[in-house]
Design goal:
The mean pLDDT is 88. The chain is 23% helix and 26% strand. It has one domain (4-48). It has a three-stranded antiparallel sheet with strand order 1-2-3, with helices on one face. It is an alpha+beta fold and 61 residues long. It has one helix and three strands, in the order αβββ.
Amino acid sequence: MLYESNVNVLVCNLLAVKGYHIVQQLSTTEQGENIIAIRREDNMRLSIEAKGQISSKKRKQ
């Protein structure tokens, strides 16, 4: 299962390889755009709302 926090990390890693600087990476408990990244060479700004399994916290049964 791919949790939202895993999606955030994977996307940030990919963006870094592609030349983006990660300006913001929110945790699953914070609200707002999960990832904000800027590519310095052309000032391209990305705002990303990542989706995955809601939380990696274990559910109470």
